[in-house]
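hey so u asked for the seq, here:
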Amino acid sequence: MKRRLALAAGAIVLWLGAVAAWIAVGPAVTDAARGETAIVLGAAVIGERPSPVFAARLDHAARLFREGRAERVLVTGGRSPEDKLSEAAAGRAYLQARGVPVEAIIIEDRSRTTRQNLANARRVLGQSARQPVLIVSDPLHMRRAMAMAGAEAFDARPAPTPTTRYRSLGTQAPFLAREVWFLHVHWLAGM
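ran it, structure tokens below
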């Protein structure tokens, strides 16, 4: 009995380690990837400004737009009770200040989770959701984001930020553990 428990525990540890490594490596990314729309997954707002994590995502989306890799940017994210404005509204203002024209920015301002970001983005895009999209988020978030984009039937290409605020082991480990957990939740929910 003890041997079986030890084998089962070992198998679980190996599985979780393999999933964590798979997440850390991330999906294949090409600098040539293009999409009709760059979908920026929401992150926190501090006052009326995007958090550093959200700002890195927005900076990357603005770069994709300037390089002609996306014709428009869809910013997602609702408003927490403590926030003055939604993540999407703060993101729109941030992008405009960096030269992205207002007519090239779409917002989805009701979502609170990654899955809601993508489900609501699909509704906002309507028929154009069938066109290729770029999913913009942190590198460690990309595997789950792509799985959820696939569940929403997007023709999605990964566009992870080239920089991340999660640089030290002390910040990366909790983020990676969280992603391992939520990816399993996604898989078990069959979504």
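The first strand starts at residue 35 and ends at 40. The chain has a mean pLDDT of 91.
lmk if thats what u needed
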